[in-house]
Amino acid sequence: MSTTNTIKFNVGGRPFEVSRDLMEEHSETMLGKLVSEAWQADPEEPVFIDRDGDIFAHVLNYLRYGSIELPHTIPRSSFERDLDFYGLGTKEGDIKDNSLRAVLASLQAAKVKRDMLLLAIEAHNQYAFNININSSHSQSFSVNVNDLLDKLGRKGDFNGEEKGSKTDTHAALNSSLLAPTGTCSSANII
Questions:
Q1: Long-range CB contacts for residues 113-117, cutoff 8 Å, separation at least 24
Q2: Is residue 99 scored above 80 in pLDDT?
Q3: Does pTM surpass 0.85?
Q4: Does residue 14 surpass a pLDDT of 70?
Q5: pLDDT at 152 over 70
Q6: What is the β-pairing status of strands 6-11 and 14-19?
Q7: Please, which of 72, 74, 174, 178 could form a disulfide with 98 given CB 3.0 to 4.6 Å?
Q8: Which helix (H) or strand (E) holds 48?
Q9: Which residues of 110-127 are buried (b: 16+ CB within 10 A; e: fewer)?
C-alpha cells in the first residue's frame, strides 16, 4: 500500500493532484488501473497522460460528483471521447452541456415565440380592420402594443391607418425583441 494520500498527474502539460481515495473508488477504470500500485512505479512522480488537460479537469469533477455540467468551451463529444479513453461510462442525464448547440436551441425557441407574437398581432390587426370594429377597441389595442414597444425601449406607432405601416411596426418590434442589450427576453413577452 502506498504511503502518499494523493496522486499527481501531468495531463497535456497541466499538473493535477487528486486524492488516492477518489482513484481507488474507480479502480476498475483505465484511469484507476493506471495509478494502481501494479502500474505506478514511483507514487511520488506525476503520471503523464497525453490528453487535453482542460477536459481532464472536468473528467475529475465527473468522477467526484457523478454528473457534470459542461461549460460552453468544452464540446460534449470531446468530453465523452475522453471519458471513453479513461474507461468511464455514463448514464442518461449525467452530462449537461452549455454548448453552442444548446444556446442556439434556446435562441431558436425564443425566435419561435417572437414569430408567434407577431402572428397574433397581425391576426388581430386583420380582425380589427376587416371586421370594422369600433375605433375605441382598435385604439386600445394600438396603445397596448405601443406600450409594449415603449417598455422595450423603442418608440413606435402601431396604428396602421394613419402613421407608419405594419411592416415598419413589425421591424421595430423585431428589433426590440432581438435587442442585444438584454432589456427583453422571451419570458418577458409571452
A1: 113/186, 113/189, 113/190, 114/174, 114/177, 114/178, 114/186, 114/189, 116/190, 117/173, 117/177, 117/189, 117/190
A2: no
A3: no
A4: yes
A5: no
A6: antiparallel
A7: 72
A8: strand 47-49
A9: beebbeebbeebeeebee
